[in-house]
Amino acid sequence: MTDISQSPRNWSTGLSYLKTPWSLVILLLALVALLDPANLRDVTEFAIAALLSTARYIVLAVFLLAYLKATGAEVMVARAFEGRESRMILLAALFGGLAPFCSCEVIPFIAGLLALGAPLPAVMAFWLSSPLIDPPTLLITAGALGWPFAIGKAVAAVSLGLFGGFALRGLMRLGAFQSPLKKQQSSGCGSCCSAPKMGGKPQWKFWQEAERRQTFGREFRGNALFLLKWLALAYVLEALLVHYVPADLIATLVGGTGVLPIITAAFVGMPAYLNSYVAPPLLAGLMDQGMSAGAAMSFMIAGAVSSIPAMAAVWSLVKPQVFAAYLGLGISGAILSGILFQML
């Protein structure tokens, strides 16, 4: 008799496979072939051309991220949390945009800093800026939206970190958040990655050590596949957006130069989180359809702040009041960044 005890697990495995970016790409193109075969070639060619145009940025991003991992550059970030509190906030906001961490690595790193007594305002500055930008995201954003937008996002990331860090310091001096941390702090992030090192120094000539060379090769291959699959999905979605979503609808919702579209984009972007590699191509399509530059910036920043890993990191370590402050600072900073970017 056939054993069916593993059927639920098999179904679960099958559903998980269907959720992968490659499967979604195939499914979306198959739907176009079924429902609108005349447009299949145009949609496919659009996605491929867009992906190829970003290829040089992908290669550079993958190389840079592998290099930072192989050298152990993440240890430099810990040094930002030394010295006077105002200096910590400034450096934490700056390093937040440079740290070569995956999203889940932020959790044990922050837990370690809090355990060592790092002040919460500096940690908040890092929390707010870290999900917004990193070297690979900067390059992918530049490839999809141009360097002015990418640099604007990097400036907004650092500015948001500074805004959040100093705002939280001011509130704490007024008596708020006197006991911000939860008693049971979570220092793990599952099995998806290992915690970053908290000591030592970077080895910039990583090729002199066999273990670091292996790290470089492993990170290069892993990140190349990661970026390729997510960007393939992103550009297929952009192609569908351009071909099937009416431009006047986008222009009505988030077009124009007023403040209302920027506010709308922030509140739409926060629940509709897209990771930092998928968002730029989609926003490029939305901007082609009439979305304003300020609304695009607001949407991207609000979405990054509300990413599941970023929110999980905050929720796992601090009390609900601090978590609410994190979201409030994030959404207000996204709106302000959009308004300033629109003006400039």
TrEMBL record:
Keywords: Cell membrane, Membrane, Transmembrane, Transmembrane helix. Its main location: membrane. GO terms for cellular component: plasma membrane. The chain crosses the membrane at residues 21-40, 46-68, 89-118, 138-163, 222-244, 250-274, 295-317, 323-341. Signal peptide: none annotated. It comes from the Bacteria. The keyword Cell membrane applies. It is found in: Cell membrane. The keyword S-adenosyl-L-methionine does not apply. It is a multi-pass membrane protein. Belongs to the UPF0718 family. This is Putative permease. It comes from Thalassovita mediterranea. The lineage of its organism: Bacteria, Pseudomonadati, Pseudomonadota, Alphaproteobacteria, Rhodobacterales.
